[in-house]
Design brief:
The chain is α/β, with parallel strands linked by helices. The chain has 22 helices and 19 strands. It catalyses: an (R)-2-hydroxy-long-chain-fatty acyl-CoA = a long-chain fatty aldehyde + formyl-CoA; a 2-hydroxy-3-methyl fatty acyl-CoA = a 2-methyl-branched fatty aldehyde + formyl-CoA.
Length: 569
């Protein structure tokens, strides 16, 4: 049979390369010059989720990479579209999530002459990527596509960028030549070594240190979640009897209700432990940099991290460079050969469990009160109980906002791995709807529940139309307290000057009808202000598994400015 002489363009070739690389989902905003690329991808079986704004689409792509382990792909137009996409790309970089941004760009021959949406996009993305490449000719496309996908998930995951000029997108090759280009590129893919394996000597040192510790603690974060290390963590915790503390997005790797969970005794756990095994979590601001006064000055850190640079930066007592799952598997095997366990009556375990139970009882006493107008605790308790009532598979929780996220982290319970998405390492506001869409696309068997402050919701609120358009099982709960932190909290002396009659910088329209926004697109909206109204709305929305917004009226003076970060503001 004669080889096909049918011509195919770069749009189709990119789509074919992505499909061969294992990509089956894309997020983005179409327009000049990438609309055809999106259409070709859809025709090949790649689901394209079209957004209103590249920022939200980028956040979705970054979270999709975290949830699935497959790089999330963001498609943008040139110039401003690329710039908007940097939000998601930078978010992936800081959190260590695999993501690829593909952008069209101006014609190569017209660069530097003021072409339409002209920008040196390779330079623009440089601070936020592990690897970037421009396809300067159609024949380079397969290699470029495979390179960005492979680099995004190798070693410490992160963002990568592929630039495709408009003139290249219009180039063509025969179908037979395209298939040969794809075959050659695929066969020539280099297996990028993820990370080195820990040595037996390093493992022996770690076990010796843990065994001799009087007050050991295991800390784990979203790096362990990314590595799918929940099984190995469970083995380590339950074989040794060591209490554990998850970071916010590490919650759920082991159930929050586990008898060795130290979350409710966090200050005691980190303040008194003498050896801390930190797995897939960075000693950054979220963990007080591992320094006094929050931590003991004598604590010895065993840091397990995929990134050797992180070990070098933190200078722990012992650094184990490696994938969390593989490293813990080796650690557990060595412990099994010579087991030890603290036991429930161990003074350290007793101290942690007693303190945790006391703090939980105090919190439950506060939560038991029905406060109307709502504070943050009453609706959060009702939401917690409604989510727990759904059982397994547990919903994926998305949380952002100052007070809303802070209170939710303490009240809402995570029972399963990778079921909490929040502002993350960077404290990024505006991620909410993008994360919701990513979660719904990545895990269609799970309900997605967003618990958002009204300020956080506002960053991406228009994407509720995207929820309705794709009929995604997402319920968005907005804590509406009238502004950033809660309306106008200025003192009398601050209300002065020629624009003193303007609303406060922290104020929104009082009583904003956020629930009506989704109704404009055919979704379901609820306005609630009492416990019975909220329970009814949650029951109905959770059962329907359809796009919904529940607008929860909160006392504007509940909560605190900047949540728990007042010292920074």
């Amino acid at each position: 049979m004669a080889e096909s002489s049918t011509l195919i363009d770069s749009n189709l070739l990119v789509a074919k390369a992505l499909a061969r690389a294992g990509v089956d989902r894309m997020f983005g905003v179409v327009g000049i010059p990438v609309t055809s690329l999106a259409n070709r991808a859809v025709a090949l079986g790649i689901r394209f989720i079209a957004f209103h704004n590249e920022q939200s689409a980028g956040y979705a792509a970054s979270a999709y990479g975290y949830l699935t382990g497959v790089p999330g792909v963001l498609l943008t137009v040139s110039g401003p579209g690329c710039v908007h996409g940097l939000a998601g790309l930078s978010n992936a970089a800081v959190n260590g999530w695999p993501m690829v941004m593909i952008s069209g760009s101006c014609d190569q021959k017209d660069f530097g002459r003021g072409d339409f949406q002209e920008l040196d996009q390779i330079a623009a993305v440089k601070p936020f990527v592990k690897f970037s490449v421009k396809a300067k000719d159609i024949k380079e496309i397969p290699n470029c596509v495979f390179s960005v996908i492979d680099q995004a998930r190798s070693g410490k995951p992160g963002g990568c960028y592929l630039d495709i000029p408009s003139d290249v997108l219009h180039q063509t090759v025969t179908e037979s030549e395209a298939n040969k280009l794809l075959d050659d590129a695929e066969s020539g893919r280099k297996v990028v070594e993820s990370v080195r394996s820990v040595t037996k000597d390093e493992i022996a040192k770690a076990i010796s240190l843990i065994r001799k510790a009087e007050r050991p603690l295991i800390v784990f974060g979203k790096g362990a979640a990314m590595a799918r290390a929940e099984g190995e963590l469970k083995d380590l915790v339950e074989k040794t009897g060591i209490p554990f503390l998850p970071t916010p997005m590490g919650k759920g790797l082991l159930p929050d209700t586990h008898e060795l969970a130290a979350t409710a005794a966090r200050s005691l756990a980190i303040g008194k432990c003498d050896v801390a095994v930190v797995v897939g979590a960075r000693l950054n601001w979220l963990l007080h940099f591992g320094e006094p006064p929050k931590w003991s000055k004598d604590v010895k850190f065993i840091l397990v991290d995929i990134d050797e640079g992180e070990i070098e930066l933190r200078k722990p007592y012992l650094g184990l460079v490696g994938d969390a799952k593989r490293t813990l598997k080796v650690l557990n095997k060595e412990i099994k050969d010579d087991p030890f366990c603290l036991g429930r009556s161990h003074p350290w375990v007793e101290a942690i469990t007693t303190k945790a139970k006391d703090n939980v009882l105090r919190m439950e006493a506060q939560l038991a009160k029905d406060v109307v107008p709502f504070n943050f605790l009453t609706p959060m308790r009702i939401i917690r109980d409604a989510i727990r009532g759904l059982g397994s598979p547990a919903p994926i929780l998305v949380s952002e906002g100052a007070n809303t996220m802070d209170v939710g982290r303490s009240v809402l319970v995570q029972m399963e791995p990778r079921t909490r998405l929040d502002a993350g390492t960077w404290g990024t506001m505006g991620v909410g709807l993008g994360y919701c869409i990513a979660a719904a696309v990545a895990s269609p068997d799970r309900l997605v529940v967003a618990v958002e402050g009204d300020s956080g919701f506002g960053f991406s609120a228009m994407e509720v139309e995207t929820l309705v358009r794709y009929q995604l099982a997402v319920v968005v709960i907005v804590f509406n307290n009238g502004g950033v932190y809660g309306g106008d909290r200025r003192s009398a002396e601050d209300i002065t000057g020629p624009f003193k009659d303007d609303p406060a910088p922290t104020s929104f329209v009082p009583g904003a009808a956020y629930h009506v926004l989704i109704e404009a697109f055919g979704g379901k909206g609820y306005l609630v202000g009492t416990p019975d109204e909220l329970k009814s709305a949650l029951d109905e929305a959770f059962a329907a598994r359809k796009p919904a917004v529940i607008n929860v009226t909160i006392d504007p003076y509940a909560g605190a400015e900047s949540g728990r970060m007042q010292h920074k503001n």
